[in-house]
């Protein structure tokens, strides 16, 4: 006598309510998602699933995108925060720059110092349309500063450094004691020297060395020296002289130096050699 068989359907009917064993995958990742109401950052799949970036670069980009504006993200700060070496972090930063997620630029401050400014993009700069950027980010992403401001800040922004230098001349040469009016009138001429990458100490030396005795008109004397000794502008850094190596950012200290390939500046190389010995 034949025995009747009951054959179960191979899968749950479409749209059936409630959990079903076939809903849970037998292998691979299983997601348990909880909605975030605060303290979260939106990361695009174009970054999280990037086909060419290393896992270190993807994680570093996610970390940087989660930081408040103004947080320092230099190589040494990141190496102190994470177990990865400075060399590995530097390599990951270069990956993100090449992929368009980071922009690192050298910016001159009003006091004449240079700093590295890092701009993070939540969409690759080469491919991201503006509407997609606004949809992806929970908050507006600061726009990079205008190029003219980075390359040539207005003269007025350098006046505080110029005024400080002129007011301090009398500490080194009492004959060059200037009035507040004289300092205000001479500040643009000093700012021109700073514009041409002359360090404040070099300007001070040019104004206070080999003084005549006496200096009858300090303001006129300083004006004449600022005009007669003004050095020419430096050659354009983007177009080095024939045979000169290109400018590089040190992977360790971010100092600018000339070399055929990226790497470490001379001081960092010597420090490495010293530690190895």
Please explain how this structure is put together.
The structure is a single chain. The chain is mainly alpha-helical. It has 12 helices and 4 strands; from the N terminus they run ααααββαααααααββα. Helix 2 crosses helix 4, helix 7 crosses helix 9 and helix 9 (180-195) runs parallel beside helix 11 (218-228). The longest helix is centred in the last third of the chain and has 16 residues, at 180-195. The radius of gyration is 30 Å and the shape is elongated. The model is unreliable at 11-19 and 127-136 (pLDDT under 50).
Primary descriptors:
277 residues, mainly alpha, Arc Repressor Mutant, subunit A, 3 domains, two-stranded antiparallel ribbon, 4 strands, 39% helix, elongated
N-to-C CA distance: 91 Å
User: Under CATH, the topology of the largest domain is which?
Assistant: Arc Repressor Mutant, subunit A
Structural class designation: mainly alpha
Using the alpha-carbon principal axes, give the shape: elongated
SSE order: HHHHEEHHHHHHHEEH
DSSP helix count? 12
Strand order of the largest sheet: 1-2
CATH architecture tag of the largest domain? Orthogonal Bundle
The top level CATH class name of the largest domain: Mainly Alpha
- Strand runs, count: 4
* Approximate strand percentage: 5-15%
Low-confidence stretches: 11-19, 127-136
Rg result: 30 Å
Indicate the mean pLDDT.
Answer: 78
Q: How many domain regions?
A: 3
Helix content: 25-40%
């Amino acid at each position: 006598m034949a025995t009747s068989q009951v054959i179960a359907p191979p899968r749950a009917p479409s749209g059936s309510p409630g959990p079903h064993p076939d809903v849970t995958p037998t292998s691979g990742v299983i997601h348990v998602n909880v909605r975030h109401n605060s303290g979260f950052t939106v990361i695009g799949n174009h970054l999280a699933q990037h086909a060419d970036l290393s896992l270190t670069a993807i994680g570093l980009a996610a970390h940087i995108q989660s930081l408040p504006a103004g947080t320092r993200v230099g190589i040494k700060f990141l190496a102190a925060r994470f177990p990865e070496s400075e060399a590995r972090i530097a390599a990951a930063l270069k990956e993100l720059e090449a992929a368009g997620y980071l922009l690192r630029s050298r910016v001159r401050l009003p006091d004449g110092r240079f700093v590295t400014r890092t701009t993070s993009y939540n969409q690759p700069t080469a491919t991201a349309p503006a509407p997609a950027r606004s949809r992806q980010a929970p908050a507006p992403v600061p726009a990079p500063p205008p190029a003219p401001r980075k390359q040539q800040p207005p003269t007025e922004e350098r006046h505080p450094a110029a005024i400080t230098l002129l007011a301090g001349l009398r500490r080194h040469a009492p004959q060059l004691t200037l009035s507040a009016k004289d300092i205000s009138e001479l500040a643009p001429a000093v700012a021109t020297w700073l514009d041409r990458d002359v360090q404040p100490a070099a300007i001070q030396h040019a104004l206070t060395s080999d003084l005549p005795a006496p200096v009858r008109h300090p303001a006129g004397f300083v004006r004449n020296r600022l005009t007669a000794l003004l050095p020419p502008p430096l050659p354009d850094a983007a177009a080095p002289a024939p045979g000169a190596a290109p400018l590089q950012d040190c992977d360790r200290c971010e100092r600018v130096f000339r070399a055929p390939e990226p790497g470490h500046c001379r001081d960092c190389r010597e420090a490495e050699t010293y530690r190895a010995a």
